[in-house]
């Protein structure tokens, strides 16, 4: 029996950043309108010029432009895939169990990857949760210590909701203890699952502990494959504080630069029998790991899960109506509608 819960989520939240181009387009339109107005005034008195162009309309170009802005905004919203309403129903999942260990230390706030390392990682995990059609998924967060954020589950919708609340503030102890994340990860898989299991560690690799490689070898012996994803660039970036345009400094007053420790993450993945990939502004590297997960021996389980209802088709429908309306609004006055003075 299905149970409907009212929850809202963006499946492709990263596409909402495209809305930032809207103000730029509006500014360009305003500048173009001002230039056009000044050009007309050069021909003579503005009222006389208007009489020479009786069919020219002041308001129609503005209305058409406003409609185009609305259409563009709706298309961006549709691509971001709004989903509302969660239906609980029994599903059978077959695939490798995955635990994602996400670094939430302060260094993950560095902005060498846009908008920052942590938010970019969360976007990638959200996409994984939305598109993965395999086994169960769990989420661990770690800094100086590791904590279970989402216990291993087949309910991807619930996992997506918990992911949204992840920040650097949810852990009381700072640092980057990858060994603790691996240790907790080994304890977090389903006890009865004897099939392949994967632990995906997403971090900048600034490890402050010595045990990580030994823990990775131990995980491999227990049938857990470790994959690592490096967030950040080798050149590094300063770590922002809560104050605007201010960065963390060391005890001598020098700005701290957080750099990707790529060699350590390569060693960790190798010790755990998996692979390493580096994230950048174009991709995070989960697609490479997908291929490896497909090769793993899978487990099958049944459970009650929530599935979101996509709502983007309503937005597409509204956008199509506005496109039709925009098509029939001409730049110049319509002789049949001129007397009504609807559009000026």
Note the topology:
Elements: E1 3-10, H1 21-41, H2 46-52, H3 59-79, E2 82-95, E3 97-103, H4 117-131, E4 137-142, E5 146-153, H5 156-164, H6 178-188, E6 197-203, H7 212-221, E7 224-230, E8 237-238, E9 257-258, H8 262-271, E10 276-278, H9 286-295, E11 299-310, H10 312-328
Parallel strand pairs: 3-4, 3-6, 6-7, 7-10
Antiparallel strand pairs: 1-2, 2-11, 4-5, 8-9
Helix pairs in contact: 1-3, 3-10, 4-5, 6-7, 7-8
Short characterization:
This protein is 38% helix and 22% strand. The strands form 3 sheets. Strands 5-4-3-6-7-10 form a 6-stranded mixed β-sheet, sandwiched between helices. A 3-stranded antiparallel β-sheet has the order 1-2-11, with helices on both faces. It has a two-stranded antiparallel ribbon with strand order 8-9. The N terminus is likely disordered.
Question: Would you kindly provide a written description of the structure presented here, covering whatever features stand out?
Answer:
With 344 residues, the protein is of the alpha/beta class. The chain has 2 domains: 3-81 and 310-328, no CATH class; 97-297, von Willebrand factor, type A domain (Rossmann fold, 3-Layer(aba) Sandwich). 38% of the residues lie in helices and 22% in strands. The protein is built from 10 helices and 11 strands. The strands form 3 sheets. A 6-stranded mixed sheet has the order 5-4-3-6-7-10, sandwiched between helices. The chain has a 3-stranded antiparallel sheet with strand order 1-2-11, sandwiched between helices. Helix 1 packs antiparallel against helix 3 and helix 4 (117-131) packs antiparallel against helix 5. It is globular. It starts with a strand and ends in a 16-residue tail after the last helix. The relative contact order is 0.18. Residues 1-5 have low confidence and may be disordered.
